[in-house]
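This part of the workshop introduces the protein records we will be handling. The question running through the whole workshop is how a given chain folds. To make this concrete, we reproduce a full record directly below:
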Amino acid sequence: MPTVFTKIAKGEIPSYKVAENEDFYAFLDINPLAEGHTLVIPKHLEKDYIFDLDDNTYLGLCAFAKKVAVALKAAVPCRRVGVAVLGMEVPHVHIHLVPLQTEQDLDFRKKKLELSQERFSSIASSILAEYEKL
């Protein structure tokens, strides 16, 4: 049975896309820690654990995530883009990219932001525009 992230990558479930190529997809987390909180996934593999990926997919995912992080930092004012790989809530490899002002901004126990559809769309459009410049 496909994961929710596979359905998102296939367009079966709507998302706020920020970047995409043939193998990987990046979209805004709908329960963000910060504005711009992005998830990066492989489109065609449903592995649960990042270190179970084959080397080419792992390296490609990391390179794609780096490019997305550069676009994210250009679109969303922040000191850094934090990276986390937890993978406990959805059994599909995903990298969290979170705009940070402080280290505490990467605390997954804190209350998530509630944003309007318009705000999500605006943020996604800004990141995508920066991604397309790269």
Observations:
- Strands lie at 17-20, 24-28, 38-42, 80-84, 95-100.
- DSSP finds three helices and five strands in the chain.
- Helices lie at 4-9, 55-75, 117-133.
